[in-house]
Structure formats: C-alpha cells, structure tokens
Design goal:
alpha+beta
Length: 583
C-alpha cells in the first residue's frame, strides 16, 4: 500500500481537490528559507482569499525543517519530509474533519481503535475548553480515558504573534508491543503523534484581543515518514520501505552493514535525499555561503564527512548512485526531480570535489594552528573556525588534538556554536510571519511590478527571457531571469523607461479564473507550470502582460510610484538578477 496514493484517493472521494505540492523554496517570502509545512503556501487562502480550486483541498507537500538538524542520525528525525494535508476553507469544520481522520485511520489504514488516543484544547481565559471536539471523538468510539485536555503549548496553533488561530486535536498511536494502557498519558513516549487537525476559528489582534473568524478553516498535517513507520511496525524510520533501497545502496558503496553504522548511514541517506530535493527545485539553488545555498552546502559536506567515517573513497563520485535511488523513488511524484536530474548530479559531484579540497586545506590549517599554540588547549575560536570554515565537527578537532596531546575548549565551542545555531534557526525556522504579513501594500505593489519588469525585459532583451525566481519584501524586489549576458547601461535604462511609462499610463490589472490548459492556450506565461493546480488565476495588465499567478496585485499600475533598478548582477549560470525599488 502506498500511503500518499491512499490519502489522496480517500480525500478526493470526500469531495476534495488534489493540489500540487508548492515548491520547496517559498516564493516572495523572505522570512523562511524553505516551506516547512503543508499549510504555509496556503496562508493567503486561510486568511480569506478565494482558492481557484474551491473550499476542499488535499495534497502531499515537500518540506524542509532545519530546527532538528542536529538530531539527524536518530531513529525519527529528517530534514526533508513529506506532509500529507487536507483543508477546509470555510466549508466543513470540527465534526466532519474528525470524522474524516477517524475513518481514514480505522477503515482505510485498518488501525485498531484501541491503539488510538487524542488530545484536545483545554481552554484558557479567552477561549473555552473544546468539549465539542472531545464529544465528536467519543461518538466515534474513543473513550473518555483516551482523551487528554492540554493547554496552549500543546494544543493551540497560531502563526507568529497574531493572526488566525485556534485549538487543535492531535491523534496518537500506541507504538509498542506492551499491553496498551487503559488511560492515555501524553507524556508516555510509547504514544506517538501521527496527525494534527487545527481548527482556525479565532483571530488574535496585535493588542491580544481574540475575536471569532467569519471564515472558519480546518488545516491538517500528517507526517508521511512517521506514519509509514507505524504502519510497517518499526521503531526506526530508516528501516521502512521509504528508505530500503537508499540504505541498501549506502551499504553497497561502503561495503558495510547498516547494523553498527546506523548514525552515519542515516545522516548520509537523509542529507543526500534533502540535497536532491533542494538542488532539483526550479529556484536553481547551488551550494554557496548564504541562505538556501549555505544549507545545501552544509548538508552535502556533512554527508561527505560521514562517508569518510564509513571509509568510503570520497575522491570518487560516490554520491551519484545513492542520489539515483532517491530520484527513482520520487520522480513520478515530483516532476522537477526528473527534469533536473542532471543538474542534481552535477551539484553533488562538484560540491564533493570542492569539499575534499577544503578538507585538505583544513588539515594544513590545523597543523599551522597547533604549531603557534601557546598552551595545551585549542581555544573555542580556533575550534569554531575549523568547524565554520573547513567543516570540521568538534569531534574531529578533539580526535586530532588528542593525537598531539592537546585539549579542546569544547564547552566554549558549544556556546559559540549555540549562538550561531540560534542565528541559523531564526533565519530558517521562521514563524510564517512573512506569509501572513507579507502581503501588505508595498509587497502587493512589488508583486505587480515583477510582471511589468518581466514584460519590459522581453521587449528590450528578447523573447527568450523567462522569470526564474523572485523575492519580495516591503523595501525592495529581487527578480531572476534567463539571460546570457550582463545588461548594458542602455538596456537597463530602456527597461526602466518602459516600466515607468506603463505605470504612468495607469493601466488596469484584471484577473480571470480558468483551467491551466486554457490559460496556456490564451498565451499566459507561468514560471513553473507544473506547480499550479488545474484551475488557475490569470492576471493581465492591459495587453502588456498576461501571467498565471497567485497574486496579490494592485488594481491599476498608476499606484506603483517610480520604478528604479538599483543593481543587475549574475545569479547563476545563464541567470541574471535585478534588484529594484519603487519610490
């Protein structure tokens, strides 16, 4: 049984429309590096915007979370994972949502009711205890003893400090061969959370005031890897069918067994899978020292370090066969994995070569540093430099230091590392703030300006120009486009003049909803057509621009102000980047 397919089949039979997974790299949301949950790309619709596919949706969403990066290597954590989700946008609510979850678990997946328990929101001074959800569960056969009432920390969802929010109900499975306790204790680790149904029925204002939402939504999330482990009866996620061929290939390449080498093999499997998905994304991320490129570099290099631990010859192109197993597993679900296969393999190969060189430099640097030591201890700054610049984990530094009868200030390193980690976490985890508040007046103007810039570039540079990505904040816009040369000053001036002439003409911006096929036939452009659902919104700016887009946009171009290009530079091979502002 394929859980993804069964999930979609069930919810489609219940009137939901399957929507494609959003890209891994969020568009126009600088607050997060990656989409971290299935609901994140749907925030505008949860806020009340009409979704072209209607009010009942389902999907499987690609996600990357970095908050648990240091836990990778244990039984259950992953950087990349798939989230199964179903949504009601002002359609059904608690009773139906709980009913769907219960039926899917007990009738489709055949999980015995006695192995299930739930938590519901216990309420606080602003919001009453969720007796309604508890009663729904009781009616379905979950006993009072299997229902726990928990507070805001466990059973309440809000994105950031303010916005749509509400209590949730979490479903737990008893993952153990022990006798099932009659009373559910949510602190008992044998009970594993498998599904979360969030009921967005309130809005929290910035001043803390709670009011009921006119549109009440349901947002659910089920982690695929965890549920597959439950269904297949294993405690180690990496022993499931999801990882079988990938782990087998690592065993073959290393000539070692999984047993006894679990941690390194899990890290290699996880990091190569995540690297395949990041480098396959149409945003064209390459290893670098900033943003998503930095994460990609860290993942590949950490995989290389653990390959060395397994005595794999990293001077060879050892990652390719493992990556091919990942590609084979996912290419029928995510078209970019198939389309960008060669790009992915090239990224892995090149970064492996670079890191092998860096490691050599790091070893030379280490020898130089210890010659100039005035004590018997490698201090925290040296240890962190070896980690940050050359990718040396503290364990490697300690191991090499002991060979020279030296100690390492590991505690100081850990404090410095923790501060660095907090910075990474702030940048990567986010609070969905950009998605919630990222559609203010200026962001809306910049969003429309990207369409005008795209149209102007086609006229000035040529029809071969296509958008490759964009990033918008309230202060500026960044626009990546296909182009094989640096724009001349004359080209930049022409582009600016064209955009500003269209702004001056105060042209109407209109929106039509149609099928994806109709949109393409009508001449509408789309950056990555496969990421859109079957029904799409098409925005037209007079006869200048016609694009499939999620919005938001101004009503007329005259509201944009003056368009000014601040910088034009290379982004990656064959892709240029423009940074511009509206004054």
């Amino acid at each position: 049984m394929n859980l993804k397919d069964e999930f979609i089949k069930y919810f489609v039979s219940q009137g939901h429309v399957q929507i494609p997974s959003a890209p891994l790299i969020p568009e126009n949301d600088p607050s997060v590096l990656f989409n971290t949950a299935g609901m994140q790309p749907l925030i505008p619709y949860l806020m009340g915007k009409k979704h072209p596919e209607g009010t009942r949706l389902c999907d499987y969403q690609k996600c990357v979370r970095l908050t648990d990066l240091d836990s990778i290597g244990d039984l259950t954590h992953h950087t990349f994972f798939e989230m199964l989700g179903n949504w009601s946008l002002g359609d059904y609510f608690k009773k139906e949502s709980i009913g769907f979850s219960f039926e899917f678990l007990t009738k489709v997946l055949n999980i015995p009711v006695e192995k299930l328990a739930v938590t519901v929101f216990e309420g606080n001074e602003d919001i009453p205890r969720d007796e309604f959800a508890a009663n729904c569960w009781k009616e379905l056969g979950i006993s009072e003893d299997r229902i726990a009432y928990l507070g805001v920390k466990d059973n309440f969802w809000i994105a950031g400090e303010s916005g749509p929010c509400g209590g949730d109900t979490e479903i737990f499975y008893f993952r153990s061969n022990d006798e099932i306790p009659s009373k559910f204790d949510p602190n008992d680790d044998r009970w594993v959370e498998i599904w979360n149904n969030v009921f967005m029925e309130y809005n929290k204002a910035e001043d803390g005031t709670i009011t009921e939402l006119p549109q009440k939504n349901v947002d659910t999330g089920m982690g695929l890897e965890r549920v597959v482990a439950v269904l297949e009866g294993v405690n180690d996620n990496y022993k499931t069918s999801i990882w079988k061929e990938i782990i087998a290939e690592i065993e073959r390449v290393s000539n070692k067994t999984y047993e006894g080498n679990e941690v390194s093999m899990r890290i290699i499997a996880d990091h190569i899978r995540t690297s395949v998905f990041i480098s396959a994304d149409h945003a064209g991320i390459k290893p670098s020292n900033t943003d998503q490129g930095y994460i990609l570099r860290r993942l590949i290099r950490r995989a290389v370090r653990h390959a060395k631990k397994l005595e794999i010859n990293t001077n060879e192109n050892w990652m390719e066969s493992i990556a091919l197993e990942v590609i084979k597993k996912y290419e029928n679900y995510y078209s970019e994995i198939k389309d960008n296969k060669e790009v992915v393999l090239e990224v892995l190969k090149n970064e492996n070569i670079k890191f092998n060189r860096t490691l050599e430099k790091g070893l030379r640097e280490f020898d130089k540093l210890i010659k100039n030591l005035n004590s018997d201890t490698i201090d925290k700054d040296i240890a962190f430099k070896l980690y940050d610049t050359y990718g040396f984990p503290i364990e490697l530094t300690e191991e090499m230091a002991s060979e020279h009868d030296l100690k390492v200030d590991a505690q100081g390193f850990k404090e410095k590392f923790k501060a660095h980690q907090e910075l990474s976490r702030t940048a990567s985890a986010g609070k969905f703030k950009g998605g919630l508040s990222g559609t203010g007046e200026m962001e809306t103007k910049y969003h429309t300006a990207t369409h005008l810039l795209n149209a102007a570039l086609k006229i000035v540079v040529g029809d071969g120009v296509h958008q490759k990505g964009s990033n918008i904040t309230s202060e500026r816009m960044r626009f990546d486009f296909s182009c094989d040369h640096k724009l001349s000053d004359e080209e930049k001036q022409k582009v600016e003049e064209l955009v500003n002439s269209w702004i001056k003409d105060d042209i109407s911006v209109t929106m039509e909803t149609m099928s994806k096929e109709e949109a393409v036939k009508s001449g509408a452009e789309a950056m990555f057509i496969e990421k859109y659902a079957d029904i799409v919104n098409v925005y037209s700016i007079g006869d200048i621009s016609k694009e499939i887009c999620g919005g938001p946009h101004v009503k007329t171009t005259g509201k944009l102000g003056t368009f000014k290009i601040k910088k034009e530079e290379a982004s990656s091979a064959g892709v240029r980047r423009i940074k511009a502002i509206l004054e």
